[in-house]
Amino acid sequence: MNTALPNSSGAASRLARFARLTLVSLVILGGCERPQPGEEAELAAQSSNEELMIFAASSLTEAFHEIADAFEKEQSGVDVTLHFAGSQALRTQIENGAPADVFASANSKHMSALLAKDLVGAPALFAHNRLVIVTPPDNPAGIASAEDLPKAERLVVGADEVPVGMYTQAFLTRAAKSFGGDYREKVERDIVSREANVRLVLTKVSMGEADAGVVYRTDALQRGEQVHTVEIPDALNIRADYPVAVPTQSPRPALAQRWIDFVLSEQGQTILAKQGFGGATQAPDKAP
């Protein structure tokens, strides 16, 4: 999880948000159980504000921090706590009773699994993303296009159960139809690591531990000159749709819905667009 606190007017609120998250993380790591009544009272006494717990995919880190700052300014007396991880990990935590008020996933599969168990309400699409190939700044394998990906001797991707890993597999299937049946085989034989979330893929590439990786466009934009970005053509790319919903166990469903409404509002969509996300209204691709 990215816990860096940028120098901005929202830095103080983000520091407080991180402190609250530390307390909640102890609950999650302790077995995804809610605090006992006495512990809940002690935590509540630390703040007179109403707390909203957001579970969100790692790729939403910067966008949701900015949205949280704006939401707290509009909703007086509300403290937003952000918990980021791979969507599959967040799904598991919610299935085990973690105290989430909102779940924002990087794909529909994990949301649908929770919906099938009546663990979330009706989801809404709020953003979409796309894949890119990233390399270290010096691009040691000389990758200039998607067709060049087999040149990477050390490739890092998302694990199969992680949304970015699922999207990567779908991209490789499409690419093999264009570049030859052995394209996917050549790419997969050089995979040296399958990571639990997209930020781990990005970090390994930016640190030079891999020749290339497949990540979301928004994550590549965040790293700037720390990585070299190679675009994947639209015909081969996979649209990553992001749904959001209120878990049925949330004790604050009305407040959680206000968060979702804010994310879908013009202000929320503008923040997402600034971070590189596509809007919520375009027709979805047939992606995993």
TrEMBL record:
Q: Which Gene3D superfamilies match?
A: Periplasmic binding protein-like II
* A Pfam family reported for this protein in Swiss-Prot or TrEMBL: SBP_bac_11
Q: Name one GO molecular function term.
A: molybdate ion binding
Q: Which GO terms describe its biological process?
A: molybdate ion transport
- Write down the InterPro entries for this protein, in alphabetical order: ModA, ModA/WtpA
Keywords (alphabetical) are: Metal-binding, Signal
Keyword Metal-binding in annotation = yes
Family recorded in the similarity comment: Belongs to the bacterial solute-binding protein ModA family.
Q: What is this protein called?
A: Molybdate ABC transporter substrate-binding protein
